[in-house]
Amino acid sequence: MKPLSLINFFVFGISTILFRRKKAILGTIILTDKCNLSCKHCAVNNITAVIYPYEQIQREMRSLYHMGIRILFFCGGETFLWEDSGKNLRDLVREAKVMGFLIVNVVTNGTFPLDLPEADLILLSLDGDRQRHNHIRGDTFDRIMQNIARAASDNICLYMAINQINQGSILPVCEIARDQRNIRAVSFNFHTPYPGTEALALTASEKQQCCDDIAGLIGNDFPIFNLQSAFPYVVSGKFPTPCRQCVVMEKGELSVCGRCVNIPGLCEKCGYFFAAEYSLVFSGKLRVIFDMLRTYLKYI
Question: What span, in angstroms and rounded, lies between the C-alpha atoms of 292 and 283?
């Protein structure tokens, strides 16, 4: 992480904690809900299959920047499907950097060539070993691994949502993250039970076992981009929701924390580790703060 970014986040964090501010620093722009896959756990793909216009994405970027957002994610659908007015995903990442965003990340399913060295992180969804991943996402595992091997940069972070199908695949995914030269780390979430996907959610005891497994792997120096200090809060669900430091922009509409915030009862079942981590950091949990600093300095 660059010194300027570190200073900016430090000042933001201190002022947020001291003055109990609810200002956001992390923003996500949804480029499209169009996707080339139909994954078993996903409830937001191809609802409209609309590619949002370049001018709209530009306005949303400017709006988030003027709000004080400095960490920007581009998300889908599948982000690499986005093209409009002669522009593609790489153009958006470059423009975001010029605009002044300090960290610009992209979320993808990894089935398209990963030629995007301009991004700080490419968060690539890998949902287990070959068998479990393909059961969830279709026959894509080998293509994704080829794209990782051929990637233009080592800026890839695997992104795994743990559910009833793949909870036994934590170690294999961590081994891939450790052994593949273009991968920096792996980041875990628990499945958040959007309507229609409730059967994939883990029980509290299953979440605890998964966290115990991940903690053991962290202790053995596997590259894991999660904060162990936040695990008890993630398992119990006892962290502030929604996370006021994160926002999502789609079609010009702003949501606090995520698109799921308006689904009754879903916040209480949140499985997003980052939402817990940011909520805990900006509520002043010192152990989580130090854990975040150490982890972000290592992997970003």
Answer: 13
